[in-house]
Amino acid sequence: MIKRITAMAALIPAVLGVTSGVASAHPAPKATSSVVTLTYDASRAGQWAAAITQGVANWNAAEHNVHLQPATSPGSANFSYVATSGWPETTLGPIVPGGSKGEVDLGQEAVDEGYDMTRIAAHETGHILGLLDDYSGPCSELMSGHGPGTSCTNAKPSAAEAAQVDQNYADDAAVVGPRQHRIVIDVWRAPALAATR
């Protein structure tokens, strides 16, 4: 019996992926029994297609409880990406299957100010997944948006942001059914220009 306990104690760190006795700053999120699949339509996104593809891939690589994929038809999508001439704005989620549909308006004005298209697309997708802005955050936080300035091109969520989205989709019962959502308008203005407008 003691040999079995010792063997199990030796296996636990290997199974859990613990190395060198260093604890992770963010515990691994609890995976649900089934992954929530959200579908999107990018047929009206124009020049944003590559940025959307990369932004979605970044989110899919970071998440355990939700997966984004193109819809089989525009009408069946849970949310859509649309190229616009204004500032980015998005339905604040978490968007869920069977709930209200969301929309990501990818604004050209942010690109004209010098912001990275992939960062914009990934950031706005973060709103669809239920994350709020944190403009005071560092470039390593995707939801810091325009806060770090135009030199920031990070388009990947931080571990904390990914964990929050996984939490948003962790409870299957919480992610079904209709919900009302509000719109988040992101003004991606360069700080020096914002004061003059």
Please outline the helices and strands.
Blueprint: H1 2-16, E1 36-44, H2 49-62, E2 66-70, E3 79-84, E4 89-91, E5 102-107, H3 108-112, H4 117-128, H5 159-168, E6 183-185, H6 191-194
Parallel strand pairs: 1-2, 1-3, 3-5
Antiparallel strand pairs: 4-5, 4-6
Signal peptide: 1-25
GO molecular function, one term: zinc ion binding
Family: Belongs to the peptidase M7 family.
Write a structural description.
By secondary structure, the protein is an alpha/beta fold. The chain has one domain (34-192): 3-Layer(aba) Sandwich (Collagenase (Catalytic Domain)). Helix content is 30%, strand content 16%. It has a 6-stranded mixed β-sheet. Helix 2 (49-62) links the parallel strand 1 and strand 2. Helix 2 (49-62) packs across helix 4. The longest helix has 15 residues, at 2-16. Mean pLDDT is 80; it is low at 1-29, 176-180 and 190-197.
Keywords, separated by commas or semicolons:
single chain, 197 residues, alpha/beta, Collagenase (Catalytic Domain), 6-stranded mixed beta sheet, 6 helices, disordered N terminus, disordered C terminus
